[in-house]
Design a protein that fits this description.
The chain is mainly alpha-helical. The protein has helices at residues 2-23, 26-58, 78-110, and strands spanning 69-71, 74-76. The chain has one domain (2-110): Non-ribosomal Peptide Synthetase Peptidyl Carrier Protein, Chain A (Orthogonal Bundle), CATH 1.10.1200.120. The chain contains three helices and two strands, in the order H-H-E-E-H. It is elongated.
Amino acid sequence: MAEEKKVAEKKGMVGEFMDFLMKYQVIGLAVAFIIGAAATKMVTACVNDIIMPIIAVLIPGGDWRTQVVMAGPVKFLVGDFVGAIIDFAIIAIVVFLIVKFMMKEDATAKR
């Protein structure tokens, strides 16, 4: 215990911070977060620009993303919610396929 304290004192704050980054792989997490944010923008654009126009043709009234259900003074943005569900489903499928591919590669490497 005393030996760990001496090592920590020698490293200083910067050394401890670097150990923290390496131990918890914070840099990898930050990179994954940034890539995830970019992928989310890409999927949202795909849904808004490619999938939704096709669905809009099939649904009477056209622009269904702006569909609203009024219940007295309360306004429910049903179209926007359905679009968010479609975004989520596409992102979930893509993440599932990436993880499945990565796990398959990992299992092959262990043999």
